[in-house]
Every structure is written in structure tokens, then in C-alpha cells.
């Protein structure tokens, strides 16, 4: 072939600004494009061999060789794939026939992967000009009688092409780096970038440094034909084998058969853990994992790991690496990965992804939504299966995975439907219960004979209703009591345990919106904090006469407490509780407390939060306690005001933390009370 020169067939002033500014935001991505093109060339040559159109040389092994040369400021990419003829160089390299930048963008932005020029040794190749002033191609086609071709271009639209001197089938691309990109011919920088984009490409990738004088020592039996022996090391002992000092071999940087490409039955626990450590540089053992393996209606493989976390769900950052035919695309593309699973760590490989022309983002496509729904379904199936067949293991994992699951339920209605019956709630005894099991818990039924405060029998009230008892039971809301702070609500917990009642522990920030969602989606279910109300189970049996007396006394006590506490909004009840050790408790209706929490969440700086939910707060005084009896009988007493304040603060402490001002007053008052004891 006679040497010739020409212009690239681009009807745009210059395509390279488009490549640099529109297609590729990351300049290091040229590594991925050039190596990926080399892998394609190797794969195609192997397919030709399988089809009988070409016979691979004996001992053939496909590979990509990357050589950095800091002295010459060059990078070379060499593959032993199918190579190109002069006509193919013309077709794939010289004739980028775009009518203009606008038409180019319109033509390719919505194309699927199979129609893209990238991957066909076209536009991906031109990503090299993001970092190079000049690019050379030396190639030799597999076709019989083909002649080697040399091509070069300085980054403009002009090129030269002539006969080359390449002797082996394949292609070598040489980049003459510009001054701003010299870091890419650094061996360590090259290693990091290649591992980032190419760790699992299907062809072996080797990295070496030109004119490298480093050596390595091997056993003589391990010598390869390609090794250059520097020195023969004689053994010190006769029984020891001979060793060779050779020039350092090129470093293998990738794994051609990643774990996700294997069938789950072929993978051991140690392999899963080793893969996790290698890919994510995380040496904490994950809780468990889900292996995705689907061939129809789309091709998708991957592994999702559930890591152990110890922080709030809002601040957790996971990593889901997305691949396309083992080519790295991105971390956490939200269109493919359900939002709640972005908290996990894992890899997903889907060759059917509708990528844009630069392979850096997804096109809007209903197919993408289907993939996301499939992943969500597989996670739900895995978790529900564990709950059914491995409940003990599921219990162990629950505290760590619950934020993921609850977040998923909030974000995905279908996932929520699948998981509702497999959400676990830990009760006061530390046992994990499903939602159906929680609903089966019944309050303590009074079996002993009802007596009043004097030990006399109390006549049972007969309640008549036209509604059938069973129908009434069905219409009645099923209440699940819960705890948000085991220490803060310790008094209420003891009351529940004494009454043989149960509650579940919901201490996570996500629990409040989650239980609200459960209530909305499950009619007849209500969650109520244990300090929201005092049920009849906690109250002592009294006669109708005694109840009427308590009601009359409550009115006067309420006025006295309001005056003593300087709180006109305070609601006070006088009741006889079974537990005579409890002097006072505060209840706040579930509705008021949720409104209070919501207002606090969205409160503006300087907003007075004391007004929110105050009407729902009730101070319950136990008429069976000596202190309360004293207050009732000595409303004008010298120390009554102090006792009232103390009773309120003691109840408040069990309900929520005191304000700094209230706490200071409480401490001062407690000291004053102790001083009275010394007199």
C-alpha cells in the first residue's frame, strides 16, 4: 500500500471538542475504551475460530498488554485480536461520517448498545485524543494475505496511513501524551485506573514499564518462554532446586471470570468473602449476600452484600458497581438500583443495559425499570425465604438489616407488600416476632375476683349491645405497644411486665415513618407508645362510689397542680393504680406525640416547641400512693407545692428528658427535700 494522507470524514469543524466536553467527563476513561476495544477484538477472533473461519495458533492465549514509558511520554495498548485491514481502518477510523455535531448527538444518544459505534473500534478509540497530542495505530489483520497498516493522527482532522511493519496479528495503539496528561504514563497511576475500569474484563490485561530493570526470582521449573533470564542462582544445598533471576514479568491486573459470572452452586462462602474484600477493600465480614443470576427476559448477574452497619440510615453510603459485559460503567446508577439498595455493597452486570454513546449513563427506558423491579423482587424473595427456613439466622441479622428493609418498604410499595409479614419486631424479652405474631399477643385478662379498695367484692357491670361480640372484636383496632427508649421509659416497661403485657422496641429514626406506613396499609392495626395511655389493666378495681369520689377530687387537684406548676394547659387525673410504688406518670396521646415529633422535625430556628402537643399531655396521680394521698388531704399544706412540683418532674423524667432549666430546678428542689429530712 502506497503511503497516503487524507482528512477524517467529519463534517464538523472538529469532533474532539465533542468527545472531550460532551461524551467523556472523566479523562481517564480512555483506558476503558481502548482496552475494551482490544477485548472485543480478541473475543471476535475466538468466535471466528469457533465458527471454523479461522484457526488460532497453537497455545494461543488472548491478552492485552499495556506499556507505560515515562521517558518517551507514551502509552501503548497491544492486543492479539483480529486486527484490521487497510479498508477496515478506513471504515472504523477514517470515516466517522457525521453531518455535524448536532446530528451526531441526535443520531446516537438514544441508541441501544448493539447499535452504538462504541465497542466497534470507532468513537471509543477517539477518546485517546483527550490525553494525547498524537496517536499511532499499528495493526495486522487475521485475514490471509493481509498487510500490516500504520496510521497516525495529530489530533486534528488530518491523518496519514501507510504500510506498517507489525509482524503479529493484532493491534497496537500508541499514545503520545500531552503535557497535562503525563500522569497517565506513571505505572502506579495506570494500575489504579485499569483496576478501576477493567478489573473483570474477559481478556487478561498485563501492565509493564518500558525498559524496566526490576527483577524477580522464580524456580527454574516455572520459567516461561517469554521470560528473560538475568542470572542463574545455584542452590546452597544439593536438595534445593535451581532458581532463576528474570526481568520482572508484566503484572496481571484483572480477573477474567468474576464470581458473579459463576453459578451460585459453584461458589463457596470463602470465595464470596474474598471477592467482597477484594472489590470493596472492606475487611469487615458482611452479614450475608444475594447472588443474582437471570437469563430471561433479560441477562443480569450480580452479587449484593448486606454489610454490618452501626450508624443512622440517612448517612450510610453503599457501593453498587454497575458493569456491562464485565466492563465497568459506574457506581450506583440510581435508575437500575432500587434506592434503598444503594445502601448495600455489590456488583451488577447487565449486558442488556441501554447505555448512552459514552457508556457513562443510562438512557430513559422502561426496560431499566423492569431491571430495578427484578432486583427488588429477588431481595424480597431472599429475605422472606430466610425468615421462613432460617429464622434463627434471620433473627441474628435483623438489627443490622432492618434499616435497609424498612427504608425499602417506605420507598417501594411492591417490596413493602412482599415484606410486611417478614418484618421483625423485638419484644421486651428480646424475642423477635413477625407482624402477625405481634397481633396475636393479647393483654392480660383479669381472672381473679374483682375487689374494691377495702377488699369488698365489686359487682360486675353488665354491658348490652345490639352488635354481635365477634363483629365487635373484628372492628376493634388491634394495638401494638412500642418503646422508643428503654431507659427513659423504664417505669412504663416495668408496669407492662408486671401486668404481663408485651411491647416491641422501636428505637431507630426510621421506625416512626415506618409504623405510620404500616398503619396506613393495614386497616385495623394501630401502634401506640407505652406511655400514650394507661389501660384498665394497670388500674385497680374500684367500686362505682369510689370512682365518683375520685372524679370529684380530680377537679380540685387539677386546679391545685395548675397553680403550683404555673401551667394552665395541664390535664390532671386522679386514679388508683395497681402498683402502689408509682406516685405519678405522664401520658401523651399517640396523635399528639406524633404531631409534636413532626413539628420538631420541620421546626424553624427559634420556634417555641412547647405549644405543640401540649393538649394531649396528662399527669396521672396514683391515689394509692402515700405522697398523692398527702397532697389530696393537705392541699394548703406548707410543703404541698414542692411535692406537686416534684411529682410532676418525676413523671416527666420517665416520659422525656427535662429541659436544662427544669433540670436545674429539679436538682435544687431535691436537695431542699433532703435537707428537710435532716431536721
Q: Can you give a write-up of this model?
A:
With 679 residues, the chain is of the alpha+beta class. The protein folds into 5 domains: 4-209, Heat Shock Protein 90 (2-Layer Sandwich), CATH 3.30.565.10; 215-247, no CATH class; 259-420, Ribosomal Protein S5, domain 2 (2-Layer Sandwich); 423-454 and 470-530, Rossmann fold; 541-679, Up-down Bundle (Four Helix Bundle (Hemerythrin (Met), subunit A)), CATH 1.20.120. 34% of the residues lie in helices and 20% in strands. The strands form 5 sheets. A 9-stranded mixed β-sheet has the order 1-6-5-4-7-3-2-8-12, with helices on one face. A 5-stranded mixed β-sheet has the order 13-14-17-15-16, with helices on both faces. A 5-stranded mixed β-sheet has the order 19-18-21-20-22, sandwiched between helices. Strand 5 and strand 6 form a beta hairpin. Helix 7 runs antiparallel to helix 8 (391-411), helix 8 (391-411) packs across helix 13 and helix 17 crosses helix 18. The longest helix has 24 residues, at 366-389. The radius of gyration is 38 Å and the shape is elongated. Residues 10-14, 97-105, 111-122 and 444-474 have low confidence and may be disordered.
Keywords, separated by commas or semicolons:
Heat Shock Protein 90, 5 domains, 679 residues, Ribosomal Protein S5, domain 2, alpha+beta, single chain
**Distance separating the two termini:** 117 Å
The overall strand count is: 25
- Secondary-structure-derived class: alpha+beta
Number of helices: 18
Give the CATH superfamily of the largest domain: Histidine kinase-like ATPase, C-terminal domain
Q: How many discrete domains?
A: 5
Task: Give the oligomeric state.
Answer: single chain
- Percent range of helical residues: 25-40%
Mean pLDDT: 80
**Cα shape:** elongated
Strand percentage lies at 15-25%
CATH fold descriptor of the largest domain: Heat Shock Protein 90
Question: What is the CATH C level class of the largest domain, in words?
Answer: Alpha Beta
Low-confidence stretches: 10-14, 97-105, 111-122, 444-474
| CATH architectural grouping of the largest domain | 2-Layer Sandwich
Q: Profile the largest sheet.
A: 9 strands, mixed
Order of neighbouring strands in the sheet with most strands: 1-6-5-4-7-3-2-8-12
Radius of gyration over all CA atoms, rounded: 38 Å
Amino acid at each position: 500500500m502506497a503511503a497516503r494522507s487524507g482528512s477524517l470524514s467529519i463534517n464538523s469543524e472538529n469532533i474532539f471538542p465533542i468527545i472531550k466536553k460532551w461524551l467523556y467527563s472523566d479523562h481517564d476513561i480512555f483506558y476503558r475504551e481502548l482496552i475494551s476495544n482490544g477485548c472485543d477484538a480478541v473475543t471476535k477472533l475466538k468466535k471466528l475460530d469457533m465458527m471454523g473461519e479461522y484457526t488460532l495458533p497453537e497455545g494461543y492465549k488472548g491478552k492485552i498488554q499495556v506499556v507505560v514509558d515515562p521517558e518517551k511520554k507514551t502509552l501503548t495498548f497491544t492486543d492479539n485480536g483480529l486486527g484490521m485491514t487497510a479498508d477496515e481502518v478506513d471504515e472504523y477510523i477514517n470515516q466517522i461520517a457525521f453531518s455535524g455535531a448536532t446530528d451526531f448527538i441526535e443520531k446516537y444518544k438514544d441508541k441501544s448498545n448493539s447499535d452504538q459505534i462504541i465497542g466497534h473500534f470507532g468513537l471509543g478509540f477517539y477518546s485517546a485524543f483527550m490525553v494525547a497530542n498524537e496517536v499511532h495505530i499499528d495493526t495486522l489483520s487475521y485475514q490471509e494475505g493481509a498487510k500490516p497498516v500504520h496510521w497516525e493522527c495529530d489530533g486534528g482532522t488530518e491523518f496519514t496511513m501507510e504500510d506498517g511493519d507489525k509482524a503479529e496479528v493484532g493491534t497496537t495503539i500508541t499514545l503520545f501524551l500531552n503535557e497535562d496528561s503525563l500522569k497517565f504514563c506513571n505505572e502506579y497511576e495506570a494500575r489504579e485506573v485499569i483496576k478501576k475500569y477493567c478489573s473483570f474484563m474477559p481478556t487478561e490485561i498485563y501492565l509493564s514499564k518500558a525498559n524496566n530493570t526490576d527483577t524477580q526470582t522464580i524456580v527454574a521449573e516455572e520459567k516461561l518462554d517469554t521470560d528473560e533470564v538475568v542470572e542463574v542462582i545455584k542452590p546452597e544445598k544439593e536438595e534445593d532446586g535451581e532458581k532463576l533471576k528474570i526481568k520482572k514479568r508484566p503484572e496481571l491486573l484483572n480477573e477474567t471470570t468474576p464470581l458473579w459470572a459463576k453459578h451460585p452452586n459453584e461458589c463457596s462462602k470463602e470465595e464470596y468473602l474474598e471477592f467482597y474484600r477484594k472489590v470493596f477493600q472492606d475487611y469487615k465480614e458482611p452479614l450475608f449476600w444475594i447472588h443474582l443470576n437471570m437469563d430471561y427476559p433479560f441477562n443480569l448477574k450480580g452479587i449484593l452484600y448486606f454489610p454490618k452497619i452501626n450508624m443512622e440510615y440517612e448517612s450510610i453510603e453503599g457501593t453498587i458497581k454497575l458493569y456491562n459485559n464485565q466492563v465497568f460503567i459506574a457506581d450506583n446508577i440510581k435508575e437500575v438500583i432500587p434506592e434503598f439498595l444503594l445502601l448495600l455493597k455489590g456488583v451488577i452486570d447487565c449486558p442488556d443495559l441501554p447505555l448512552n454513546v459514552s457508556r457513562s449513563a443510562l438512557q430513559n427506558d422502561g426496560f431499566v425499570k423492569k431491571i430495578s423491579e427484578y432486583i427488588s423482587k429477588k431481595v424480597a424473595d431472599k429475605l422472606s425465604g430466610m425468615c421462613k427456613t432460617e429464622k434463627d439466622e434471620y433473627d441474628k441479622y435483623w438489627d443490622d438489616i432492618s434499616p435497609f428493609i424498612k427504608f425499602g418498604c417506605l420507598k417501594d410499595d411492591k417490596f413493602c407488600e412482599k415484606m410486611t409479614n417478614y418484618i421483625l419486631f423485638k419484644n421486651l424479652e428480646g424475642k423477635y416476632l413477625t407482624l402477625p405474631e405481634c397481633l396475636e399477643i393479647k393483654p392480660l385478662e383479669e381472672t381473679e375476683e374483682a375487689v374494691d379498695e377495702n377488699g369488698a367484692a365489686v359487682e360486675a357491670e353488665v354491658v348490652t349491645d345490639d352488635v354481635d361480640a365477634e363483629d365487635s372484636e373484628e372492628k376493634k383496632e388491634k394495638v401494638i405497644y412500642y418503646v422508643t427508649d428503654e431507659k427513659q421509659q423504664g417505669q412504663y416497661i416495668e408496669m407492662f411486665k408486671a401486668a404481663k403485657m408485651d411491647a416491641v422496641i422501636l428505637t431507630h429514626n426510621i421506625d416512626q415513618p415506618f409504623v405510620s406506613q404500616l398503619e396506613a396499609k393495614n386497616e385495623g392495626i394501630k401502634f401506640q407508645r407505652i406511655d400514650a395511655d394507661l389501660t384498665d389493666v394497670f388500674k385497680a378495681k374500684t367500686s362505682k362510689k369510689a370512682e365518683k369520689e375520685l372524679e370529684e377530687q380530680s377537679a380540685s387537684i387539677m386546679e391545685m397542680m395548675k397553680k403550683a406548676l404555673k401551667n394552665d394547659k395541664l390535664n390532671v387525673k386522679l386514679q388508683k393504680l395497681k402498683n402502689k410504688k408509682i406516685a405519678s406518670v405522664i401520658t401523651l396521646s399517640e396523635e399528639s406525640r406524633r404531631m409534636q415529633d413532626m413539628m420538631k422535625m420541620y421546626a424553624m430556628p427559634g420556634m417555641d416547641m412547647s405549644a405543640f402537643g401540649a393538649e394531649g399531655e396528662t399527669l396521672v396521680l396514683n391515689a394509692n400512693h402515700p405522697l398523692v394521698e398527702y397532697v389530696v388531704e393537705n392541699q394548703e399544706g406548707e410543703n404541698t407545692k414542692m411535692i406537686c412540683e416534684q411529682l410532676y418532674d418525676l413523671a416527666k423524667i420517665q416520659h422525656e428528658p427535662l429541659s436544662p432549666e427544669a433540670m436545674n430546678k429539679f436538682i435544687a428542689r431535691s436537695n431542699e427535700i433532703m435537707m428537710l429530712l435532716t431536721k
